[in-house]
Amino acid sequence: MKQYIIRRLLQMIPTLIGVSIIIFAISSLVPGDYITAQNNPNMTQEKAQQLREIYGLDKPAVQRYFIWIGNMLTGNMGDSLVHKEPVTTVIDNYVWNSFIIAFFSLLFAWIIAIFAGVFSARFQYSLFDKIVTLLIFLSMSLPSFFLGLFLIKTLSLGLGITPVGGMTTAGLNAHGWAYMVDVLKHAFLPVLVLTMLSTGSLTRYFRTSMLEVIHMDYIRTARAKGLHERVVIFKHALRNAMLPAITLLGFELPGLFGGAIILEKIFIWPGVGQVYLESINMRDYPFMLGFTIFIALLTLLGNLLSDVLYGIADPRIRLK
Amino acid sequence: MKRKLSIFLLTLAMFGGLLAGCGGGDEKAADPAPTEQGTQNKTDDSQKTDDTAKTDDTAKTDDAKQDDAATDQNDGLFPATDPASSPATAMNRKDTLIVGMTAPKGIFSPFYGETAYDQYVVKAMFDSFTEVQKDGTYGNSLAEKVDVSPDGLKYTFHLKPGLKYSDGTPMTVKDYVFALKVLLDGSYDGPSDMLSVKIKGAQEYHDGKAKDISGVKVIDDNTVEVTVLEPQAMTKDNLGTVYMVPEAYYGKGYKQGNVESIKALNNKPVGSGQYVLTKYAPGQEVDLTANPNYFKGAPKVKNIVFKTTTEETKMAMLQSGETDMDMVTVSEDNVEELKSYGFLDVNIFPTNGYGYVQFNHKLKKYQDLKVRQALVYGLNRAEIVEGVYGKYADVINIPQSKVSWAYTDENIEKYEFNLDKAKQLLDEAGWKVGSDGIREKDGEKFKINFSATADNSVVNALIPIMTQNYKELGVELISETLDFNAVMDKKDKGDYDMFFAAWGLSADPDNTIFITDGAQNKMGYSNKKVDELMEKAKVELDQNKRKELYKEMYQELNRDLPMIFMYQRRDMWPINARVKGFDLSPYKDFSYGLYNAELSQ
C-alpha cells in the first residue's frame, strides 16, 4: 500500500509538469495582457513599456515559463497583478469561504442522496420512487442562477427570513459564536441551492448502485437466513453499494476548494471562484496559473485518494 | 397498462413542474451580468476613468417600450416620494451608513490603488493640496494657497498650518516630497505617471542618478516649491492632487529603487482624511470610522461600511435596506423600479465617458472623409441608443461630456440619420453599387469586419441595426464577437476594420487619443489642425483661452469624424432618503463628501 502511494505520488510529477506547460501555453496564446486589460486612455507608451518590463511581460513566452516554473518549485507563486499581493495570500483570503459552502452542501447532499437513493431502490416503482425521480430531474434541470435568484426573491425579499447576500451582516463586528451564527445565517441560501443542485444526480447514482446490489445473491441469502430487513439493507446492501460512491468522494476534493463561480456572484459570497474568473478577464497571469495548478494538484490528489480509499474499503481489490 | 399510465402521468407532471418553474422569473435580476470591472486609471489621483466598455447593462431591451408618461427628465435628482417607507433594517442603523459597491481589491494605498472602488477608500482616508470640484475644475483642499509663476514653471504650495494625521503625526511638506519620490522611483509600478509632469530632476531620480529631486525645494515646514521643465495647463493640479502620506509611517524601510516596503502597507493605510480604516474583509466589506480631528470638521456619520454588492442583487439589497446607497446601471426598467420603492432619492447624471465605433485609418477606404461621413449618416444611432438605454442616454457628436467646461455644441453637425445623403456621399467617393448590391471601387468590395465584445447589450442592439442600415447602403457588415481583451489586443496590433468600445473621460479634456502617434491613438488618425490645437491648449494656462481652443478642436473633430461617436449614457446613485448631505456630480463622487453626510433620525 505504501509503495503504491509513493509510486502514484511520483507519477503525479510529470502530470503536473505537463499540465503547467499546457496552461502556460494557452495563457500566452490568448490575446491581451494585464496592461491591455486595464484599458487606460491616459497611459503613455513609455509607462506601458515600463510596466511590462517590471512585470516581465515583455520577455518571450518560453523564458517566462521557465522563470515561473522556477519560482513555483520553491513554492513562490508570484504576486497577483490585480491584488498586488502574493497569490498564496489572495487564495488564502478567499478559499476558506468557498470551502464552508462546499463542505456543508457536500455533507447534506450526500446524506440526503444516500437515504433517498436507498429507499428509492428498496421501494422501486412505488409512489415514493416516482416522486423522488421527478424531484431529481426538476432540480437537475433548473439553472443555478435561476434557482438562487428565485429563492432570494421569495425567501429574502418576500418573507424576509434570510439576508439577500454577503457572508456577514455589514457593520456587525461579531466575534466567536455570534459570528458563526451570522455566517451560518448567510450561508443558508447558497448551501440550499448548491445542495439542491447536486443531490439530484447523486441520488440517481446511489439508486442505481443500490438496485444492482439488492438483486445480488448474497442479499437473497441474508434474507433467507432470517435477518431483519433493516439489517439486510443498511448493513449488507448499503455497504456494498457505497463502494463506487467512495471513488466519487475522492473527486469531490477539488470541488471543495474550487468555488462555485455563479452562485458566488449571485449571493455575493466572497469565494475564490469569482476571484479566479476575474483574474482570467484581467489577464492576471500569476493568479490564474497559480490557482489552476492548485486545482490540478487537488484533482490528482483526489484521484489518488479515491483509489486508496477503494482499496481499503473493498477487500476484493488488491492495490499493487 | 399500469406502467404506461405511470409513465404518462410522470411526463405530464414533469412538464407541469418545468413550466411552473419557467414563469415568474424576475426579469431584471435573472440576467447574469458579466464580471463588472471598474478599472481605475489615473495620471494622478483625482483623474478617474471608468472602464465603461465592460461595466455592462443587465436590463433586457424592452420590445414594448414602457410609456414613461411622468416626465421627459433624463437626469438630475428624483427625490423620494415616501421617505417613511424606508425599511426598518435601514432606519435602525442609527450611526452607520452602508454604501454598496463592487468589491475593492484591498489596495488602499494612494500610490497603488487602481480600481475606482479602492480609490473610494483612498479618498475617504487621504487628502491632497487641491481636489476636484463639482464642475470639474480644481480648488484648494489642504493648500492654503498655490502660487504659480507667470511663466508656468514654478509652483509654490502653501500647506495649511497645524494639520495632523490620524495617528497624531504632524503634517509637513516633507511628506509631500516623500510621496513624489515614491511616485518617481524607478521601481514604482503603480498607475500614476508622475514622469509626464516633467518635474525638474525627476528623470534623474527615476534613473537612480540623483538622490533627491532637484526641482523640488522645501522652503519651510509648510511651503514647498516645485519647478517643472515645461509649462502645461494640468501641471498645477497634477502636482496638487498627490496625496499626503505620513513619511514616518510609509517611509520606514523605503530606499530609493525599492518600493516593496510601501507595497506591504497597501492594506494598512494611515492618512489624514475623513475616516480611518478599522476592518477589511476581502470580498465582503470595508469598515471605516470617523476621524474626529479631520481638518474640515469631524464627520457626522460615525461609521461607514463599504459593502460588496453584485449587479444581480444590488437593487434587492437597496430594497431590503441592507444597503443605503449604491451605483446602479441606468435603464428604464431599473429607474422605474427604484423610483417605485418610494424611499430612495435617485440621482442620475451623465457618465464621464462615451461609447464609440473606431475606424482603422490605416485602411485606405476609411481615409476618405466622404466614406466616414457616409457611414455616420447611414447609421441610425438614435435608434440604437434608445433601444438600449431608452431616454437615459444621448447621441453625441463630439468626444466630450455635456457637463465638462470644455463642451460645446456651437456649429456642431448632428449627423442625423439620412440614408439618401449617405448613399450620395458614397457615390461621390467612387463606391458604386455592384451587381450583387454591394458597393465596389477599384475591384474592392465594401466589406466591414466588425469586432465586438460578447455579452454587451449595446453590441447586441448595435450589430443588427448596423447590419441592416449598411445593407441598404450597399455595405456588407461581417461581425465577430470576441472577449474584451481580445478586441483590445486587436486594436493595439491594428488588426481590425471597425470595433465598438467605450471609455472614460478625465476631468481635463487633454488626452492622447486624437493626436498623431498619440499613446492612445491606435487607429492611425492624423490631423494637423487637431495636433496644433491640442498642443496649444495643453500649455495654455488661461481657462477661457483653453475653452476657445478646445471649442475649435471639437468642431474640427466633429467635421473630420475620426470615429463614429455613439452615446453618452447615465450613471445612477439611488440613496436612501434618510441620508442627507451628499452633493454629487460626475466629477465629484460621494467619497469626497463623506464628512458632510448625515443620517436623519
Percent in strands of chain A: under 5%
Provide the gyration radius of chain A in Å. 24 Å
Principal-axis shape of chain A: globular
How would a crystallographer describe the biggest sheet of chain A?
none
Structural class of chain B: alpha+beta
Q: H/E order of the elements of chain A?
A: HHHHHHHHHHHHH
Helical content of chain A, roughly? over 70%
Instruction: Tell me the major beta sheet of chain B.
Output: 9 strands, mixed
Number of helices of chain B: 17
* Main structural class of chain A: mainly alpha
**First-last Cα distance of chain B:** 71 Å
Describe the global form of chain B. Answer: globular
Helix content of chain B: 25-40%
What's the quaternary structure here? heterodimer
Low-confidence stretches of chain B: 16-70
The greatest inter-chain interface is formed by: A-B, 68 and 79 residues
Q: What is the end-to-end distance of chain A?
A: 7 Å
Task: Tell me the Rg of chain B in angstroms.
Answer: 27 Å
